[in-house]
Amino acid sequence: MRSKILLNLFAAALVVALSAVASAQVVTAKGNVMLKQADGTTVPVQGAVIKFYRTDINQTFEAKTDKRGEYVNVGIPLVGIFTIAVSAPGARPDYIPNVKISQHTDNNFTLEPGDGAVLTLEQIKAARMAAPTGAVSPANTAEAKKKADAMAAERARVEAENAKATELNVKLPDILKAGNAALMAKNYDEAVTQYNQGIQLDPTQGVFHRNKAVALRARAVDKFNAAMKAKDQAGKDAARADFQASAESAEKAVAILRQNASKNAASAPTGAANSEEVGYLSDRAESYRLALQTSAQVDTNAAATAIEEYINVEPDAVKKDKAQSSLGDALFFAGKIDESVAKFREILAKNPNNLDAMYGLGIALAAKVMDASKDAALITEARDSLQQFVNKAPEGYPRKQEALESVKYLDDTMKTAAIKSTDTTKPKATGRKKP
Fold first, then answer.
1. What strand order describes the sheet that includes 49-54?
2. Is the pTM of this model over 0.70?
3. 412-430 pLDDT tens trace
4. Partner of 43 at 20 to 30 A CA spacing, among 173, 260, 327, 413?
5. What angle do CA 289, 290, 292 make, to 5 degrees?
6. Tens of pLDDT along 302-356?
7. SS3 for 241-278, per residue?
8. How far is CA 29 from the centre of its chain?
């Protein structure tokens, strides 16, 4: 019975969505500008001008603050190193050099009162290259040499970063574009190759890890479906390896996303989840769901956690409901039958018409029957849940045929159990087996 139940779950062809591919090549830069008052308090600055000077190539972007002192620019390139300068009437200008905005999207400023001057990039470079004045006499040659060496090292570091940023600016967008094109064309081998090149150049770009996870998952689906049809064990194993790698890549993508977010935690609303985070968590949950469903070697606790974290941030009620059922499936395939049953019952208590939960509860209860002897009440509940699914599911709905077969099997099981409980006669000498 247990093997039949598992086969029923596998019978419907696996599917994977490619529409959520993260193809954006720009990031959003934001922050706030405050002005220090004489009493030490700060107030928002409206109309402050924020210049994003790109230092690896000649580009400049701009934003202005609103009445709350907040600014946003949604079109900053994914790669590149920037100097961010801010100016405002009645304030002394300020700047932050060597900013990789893809890793540090939020940059805040607190300005001192001043003349409202505007800093050009050339002025900023000159100020950074100039030796300190007025504080220490250069008579102490050892100290002067130490400072000069430090400045030279800083210049070398900046030049190296700029050179690297220039290389990335030329290569990364093209690699991402090529990978996404291959993915949408279902050329999964090429897509994985392209994303790996992007990761090798800059492993801190989460988009390459995320898209690689999607490509691996899609390739695994094709492999697994073909192997199931051909009864090819080696093909199944290859697909499982891809599912496992997909989950691992998705985990890396989420980790990078969270590392970047933690740098801006002070300005982020508590408990808030943006659409990018929801997308990353959705992809990770789907990779784990399919990995468990196909018995790939992944951490079952990490899988359950991943799906729960996605459920907690998904704003769409329909997607959230479907993900709840996925969690029940994940627990089932992880061998946590009691937890799976509890999850499906919880879903149905909130939404009695959830078809996937009806089916999942019936299958989980049927498996539980085999683990806990033929309990008539459990068999009846399993059978009724599956029959309810059959009654409500439209024609062509995935798993409907498998549910019909399972209902028949459970009906036969109940009949057999009834015969065994009432038939106390000994087997006849004809050699026929007792039912």
1. 59-64, 49-54, 82-87, 94-99
2. no
3. 877 776 555 544 444 433 3
4. 260
5. 70
6. 988 999 999 999 998 888 878 888 888 888 877 888 888 998 998 899 888 888 8
7. HHHHHHHHHHHHHHHHHHHHHHHCHHHCCCCCCCHHHH
8. 21
